[in-house]
Amino acid sequence: MGLIRYLATDKYAIYIWGSYGVTFLLLGAEVLMLLKRKRNLTRRHSPQVESRDTRFETSLQELQ
Amino acid sequence: MSKQRINWYKYAAPANFYPLAGRLIPLFAVPSAILFIAGIYVGFFVAPTDAVQGESYRILFIHVPAAWMGMFLYVLMAIYAGVGWAFNARLASMMATAISPTGAIFTFISLVTGSLWGRPAWGVWWVWDARLTSTLILLFLYIGFISLQSSIDDARRADRAGAVLALVGVVNVPIIYFSVQWWNSLHQGATITKNSFKMAPSMAAAMLILLGACWLYSIAVVLARVRHIIREREQEAPWLAEATV
Lengths: 64, 245
What we know:
The structure holds two protein chains of two kinds.
Chain A: H1 2-9, H2 13-44, H3 47-63
Chain B: H1 14-46, H2 60-86, H3 90-122, H4 130-151, H5 155-169, H6 172-182, H7 201-233, H8 238-242
Helix pairs in contact in B: 1-7, 2-3, 2-4, 2-5, 2-7, 3-4, 3-5, 3-7, 4-5, 4-6
């Protein structure tokens, strides 16, 4: 239990928390960004979005 | 029993690699998560307190694997970029592009955790020491590679430009590794070498388990990213519409 008490109380514990915190925050953020990119790609290539894009382009051409 | 040989060249085509990468991702991601938990457990609850540095040395269990990953991934990125350039292999260039953000993240983690370890151990956050400076240059090389590729619209031209930078920059990796031998450095020398293991077995175990976790994590993430790159670049290809996403 010495380590747990150390991590809770010692003045240098913040450096250990900070190191592991930064590491898992960045790795987690990378995974989340990849999931977001996948969601965006799936949405962009879904038939509904494609037909909406086509409608938008057609209406733009009509305006011109 | 008949031996069926796998045609590895088949997987150099994005159309064949895309579904394979999708199947491989969980095989690397799940063991990676298990190894991260095991490594943290061994590092915090099995490894003893260091006689000189006390508890703060536990930062090294993540700092050292992150620093190694930053260097390994750069060399891997340069090899893929070089192969993509020399043989006009699209998938190799895509792999180089997919590796770069993960390499940059690990290099950044090694710099931040090194700084957080340096404060209690050396009394300073940063020194312009050869090891630290060359690692900072490695981060700039990653950022330069990513920025250069992003700034060029044509993907193949971006791949070639990135390959030149990656191959020129690879000279920095041996400089990082040997910097502690070539120059007087505040940074300590290698603890684990081919002939010696200057640490307690449980300490080495924590470091090596977390290194394994970082490797498996990197493979899973790079495979996921290269699938996205394939989808973005090959969006007009008929095979992609048929592929299960």
